[in-house]
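Example 3.2
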Amino acid sequence: MSLPHILLGLIAEPMSGYAIKQEFDTKLGHFWFAELSQLYPALKKLEADGLAESTAGPSSKGPPKKLYRRTDAGREELLRWLASEPGVLPIRHPYLAQVFFLGASKNPASTLAFFRELKQRLVATVQRLNAVEAGWASEDPRYPDELPEDEFYVQMTLTAGLAVHTAYCAWCDDCIARIQRRFSLA
């Protein structure tokens, strides 16, 4: 049940659904992905459960936008979740599912191309995360260890994202080398 809790963490102050989506894309994207179409039903359920409330806010175009904010009950639920055991769930990586079945292709050249493409994508993610980290570091001389407490922990998620994606890049290098050796490919 992480998405509702992530939303409760984000809406300490009033936020529109669009602003929440931007937070996901810019600050949470290295460990959690959510479509805008997932956010609104989850926000509606938080409202129905009394964990969030919405008000009409000004909009630069069109009708007023809906601004969501957690309630006191929502804050209590967030704190309960934060005090619970870490949520370690099975990981879903579509590319690992593809790797699992690559032997069915019987085409070592295409599997080599697959790993090269995967590595390029992972490297791009590492570069993006490094750019985020460099931006954060340039904005605050206290970075990383003297940041305010909430930002201190946000930064830890960034280093986790960097570590995981860097490890997958190294894994791709290993897979590429093994395929090249096994099938005498360059």
